[in-house]
Amino acid sequence: MKPSLRNYMPERADRYFSGSSEQRRAARALFESVADLPLICPHGHVDPQLFAEAAYHFESPAEFFLIPDHYVFRMLYSQGVRLEAQGVSVNEGEDASEVETDHRRIWQTFAENYHLFQGTPTGLWLRDELHDLFGITEKLTPSNAQTVYDRIAERLAAPDFTPRKLYEQFGVEALTTTDAATDTLEHHRAIQASDWDGRIFPTFRPDKVVNDLDQPDWQEQIELLRAVSGMDIGGYGGYIAALEGRRAFFKEMGATATDHAAETPYTEVLSPAEADAIFQRGLAGQASADDARRFTGHMLVEMARMSSEDGLVMQLHPGSIRNHNRAVFSRFGADKGADIPHALDFTRNLKPLLDQFGSHPSLRLILFTLDESTSARELAPLAGHYPILRIGPPWWFYDSINGMRNFFAQVMETAGIYNTVGFNDDTRAFASIPSRHELWRRIACDWLAGLLLEGQIDDEDAYAMAHALAYGLAKEAYGL
Amino acid sequence: MKPSLRNYMPERADRYFSGSSEQRRAARALFESVADLPLICPHGHVDPQLFAEAAYHFESPAEFFLIPDHYVFRMLYSQGVRLEAQGVSVNEGEDASEVETDHRRIWQTFAENYHLFQGTPTGLWLRDELHDLFGITEKLTPSNAQTVYDRIAERLAAPDFTPRKLYEQFGVEALTTTDAATDTLEHHRAIQASDWDGRIFPTFRPDKVVNDLDQPDWQEQIELLRAVSGMDIGGYGGYIAALEGRRAFFKEMGATATDHAAETPYTEVLSPAEADAIFQRGLAGQASADDARRFTGHMLVEMARMSSEDGLVMQLHPGSIRNHNRAVFSRFGADKGADIPHALDFTRNLKPLLDQFGSHPSLRLILFTLDESTSARELAPLAGHYPILRIGPPWWFYDSINGMRNFFAQVMETAGIYNTVGFNDDTRAFASIPSRHELWRRIACDWLAGLLLEGQIDDEDAYAMAHALAYGLAKEAYGL
Amino acid sequence: MKPSLRNYMPERADRYFSGSSEQRRAARALFESVADLPLICPHGHVDPQLFAEAAYHFESPAEFFLIPDHYVFRMLYSQGVRLEAQGVSVNEGEDASEVETDHRRIWQTFAENYHLFQGTPTGLWLRDELHDLFGITEKLTPSNAQTVYDRIAERLAAPDFTPRKLYEQFGVEALTTTDAATDTLEHHRAIQASDWDGRIFPTFRPDKVVNDLDQPDWQEQIELLRAVSGMDIGGYGGYIAALEGRRAFFKEMGATATDHAAETPYTEVLSPAEADAIFQRGLAGQASADDARRFTGHMLVEMARMSSEDGLVMQLHPGSIRNHNRAVFSRFGADKGADIPHALDFTRNLKPLLDQFGSHPSLRLILFTLDESTSARELAPLAGHYPILRIGPPWWFYDSINGMRNFFAQVMETAGIYNTVGFNDDTRAFASIPSRHELWRRIACDWLAGLLLEGQIDDEDAYAMAHALAYGLAKEAYGL
Fold this sequence. Notes:
The structure is a homotrimer of 480-residue chains. The first copy, chain A, is globular and about 75 Å long. Chain A contains 20 helices and eleven strands. In chain A, the strands form four sheets. Chain A has a four-stranded parallel sheet with strand order 6-7-10-11, with helices on one face. Helix content of chain A is 49%, strand content 8%. Chain A is an alpha/beta fold. Chains B and C meet through α4, α14, β9 and α18 of B and α1, α16, α17, α18 and α19 of C.
């Protein structure tokens, strides 16, 4: 007979706070001071189409929670549940006959594996969303799965359950998407042309026309860039001019930032002649992997140059080896939970960029990492020195309670909070945004309560830091 | 006058629990629900000879606790106590005249240095073993050392103090040893031929006939393999067949797993012709270090192939630079506490193996690490995606309170507990097994109590997770 | 209306303690047992000139707290406050017209940015110094900045506010400086020739005549060495003899240790002919970067050889990429907060040195790191085995509450406390020494209180370990 542990569980309002009961009470007071602040969402992957139509509705509970979320389906996949059984669509040309199309069965499969998410951030977000958006307080089980499905489906169909209404209900103050350099931003145009006054802005992410010079679809990407920009891209000069043109267009459309992914933060300054020679090899389909690596490194410096001129805040997200699972990539494509981090070196790799622009008065560069060992060792000392640098919040696998606690512990002593930029939800799942921000705000206040109880900060500082971490830093850093 | 701190020390039943008094009470309730579960010991280095003879007795307290335990003698060595004074035997051909043979003096030297183990896991295991197995509650000191020696010696001589009786008393459900590919498993045969029904199984560890192709004793090892397998090993094909034969024999003898050590997790697929050419250079004594590195990487993939066919669970223990101290290795041989970890890269190194077998339905590969920075960065994302992968428990230097806490904090959020495999005691010291499992169970329950108090999990989950971590996961992962 | 959190803040005597109220009480009892022990300062960068004149006085609050402290001005610089505005002097030949010379304005700028230090160790040291040395209990703000300046200035001018009097008031038992191999130690001679009996000793740091063989000022440094040693340095033999001569002189002047910085802990044994050839290329201005790297690695082994003969304790501080900001280095010179750590490998790099001297009975080598991931992975296993090795305390960015907590958590389980060397304040700021030692002692006692409450150690051990960490280990390790 196991004794009940219910008495040890906190009331819901105190969840995610740690330590002694005094610390929890202090954390709660701090949290309550920021709980209702608007949400600044300066980096994410929500599809702008959701806001382009006033009456957009989500298709089903499985579509809403599961099918597009690689955090979810990769976990079931890791335990042997095939992606097909989870409704993940296959690449064109692949046999799609085994892809489950019955959303109720996909949901049932998920419910049967719900225990896999015990103690994971995905588990917490799902539970909090079910509670906050759908009023579901019982734990999902195989036996209640279909009833829960019904209740979610009913709510999804309600007239007020549109992305625009949710945006308002969530208290979002601004939300940015992430868009290819070759994107026409048609959905953003539709939003701006509508009478809705939500603030949805694009972010300029040129990876596909910058990083993959040695890949088979490079020429096609450059052709897309030529077409959308209307410029001649026969050489490196035209290519740069086209990119500058696209940035100007994004800025007109409200963008305040760019974003750049790369396997490493390698930077290098090529001479114009070298850059052109490599670019020409790319166009001719003759570029090597080393060409691509050097060109990417060079273009990061070039993008810093452009940002120093047009004022777009630059973000760098390095460190993921994308599409690590060859079979999954070949059948299902990118973003299937098979992106795996590796060890990074910012200190040496960023030096060429910093030699040129490290103290530039109108450049801001926000660094993210997937290698936590770089946080205290490299990022905090770099951002605690160079005026252009700021450190982005815990990213991806680290957007979690431990990831946040490590971030506060590893970054703040050397960099101080003012060299960080608050929170980014970085999600494709629009409806998870409030839960993610609430988790961040709770853990930030828990951290501050700990500092207060140790006499490291006083209450005036604690309240000011809570506000900055929850709202002010993100707003200021991205100019939103 | 220093005030007594006795009031702050927990009662013994609450040791190793952390946090507030509520958290300790919750941890204790969870621990009590798993404290009496049988012990699954799926990876270790206990000598099977202990169980081959019904009347086996341990020689002396020094032999029981100190002389074979590199965790102990390396610590005294680091503070200037020579290995000879600790009774460590020298290699054949070395002058053994200075090796202490008086076990009472060895024990006295240990007692004089017992403070070195303050705050170390070895100190906790020793204290708990002295208490639980020998009823010794006072702290070992230079002045009580000989009295304590007498009490231990008396107990060691008792008729019921045999490995077989201890196995039963400890509640071991299954225990596996680690055995060379060329081992005849005579002790295992003796155990199985006896009327004792303890479940002692071998594990297939072929390192010596796989890793060291460029070493002087390679030919000798291959000759041993030839002799024990009775097969012609003139070429790579015969070599593979011989290994497959040995695996089949181990499986007949009850093995459910293989184990592989390597300096790095490097893998590579060689063509049959390349593999044969390198193998031939090895036989001819002409292999280079690079040959050995590539051959080891290739054989890891080949072992994965064999495991996918015969179902033996594959374990990989990479990351130790063995025999780092040249002088100690030359005089005393291997396993003398001079194996030092280094930084690892799983993400790139395992890709060739995973490209071939990452989603194979009948393969399981358990990964261990000595580089904690890989836990959250690489192992958790890999195991949280690839169906064949599981993460082994904290190993060696990390089989400790902090090592376990870091493991829970770094692995579980991304991988979930079901991509881990519970606990391995991984010890040569049979009698330390209950203390090691108890430490793991206590720290696991302490972690779960923390999650519960933070509202991350409910009590139903906490009890289920405690059972899985203490028992279920290990049993399932190794098929025991 | 935000509720007051004052009740949650500890009284000053309990600051920096963590956990439950029981743990805080235990920590306080432990701390009180070591709070008044003398301060051992075995590694630091205080200018010996402070003690050479009996009547030395500090110039101003800005000079005392800000202008020489790169921990302070790099933080303001990172937020866009130019170094000139902080009074940092420029290199010879640079236009100095913009360097602020009004110390009151520098102080005001600092006060306006004081919030940047929230939650940082610099913030804690400053607050504690203002309190303990100047009786200032209110928080520094832009509006009270000039009043606070006046109060500090008044105290600085007091007759008893000299370094010698402070040394006595602080309870310093011994303090060592860090001095170039070519230093004449004139200030140390003046101290020893005076009637003051403070114990101020030099430390031999030969980096400039060892590390930079490929740099433009190498010949000049060697010429300085020739001049100060009076020896012919036409070849490697004379160079070694000159270094040995300088070591002997430092030892006569009371030195007990040497110190060595290097970008990595790389070591290598060159043959005498190779060493001489590289040395000659250096003298001729023809050495390559690889020459410099190999020569530095060789000289670390050679310095270990010398230490094994003359008994000077050897310290190694690797891992910082110095002067990372090209523009700042070019205008302001070295030590401007632009030194950035990178990933290290001790395991492979130290092997050549350890192969020669790892068990030498009269050598001690203390290792420091700026890469925390090496602490548990490499340093603790190395120091927990090799007799000559000890681990230095958390250094630079890690001389902080989290740095210390990580150090205890990562190092002690494997190495034990007796393979560590207590605390080094490692500061240029003499007056910050008591605050730094108090922080260390508080965090050490907090850690021990945690072990006690978890039943890992008993109270006898806790008191003994507190004494060792606060005083005994440093004194013993450096022979002070």
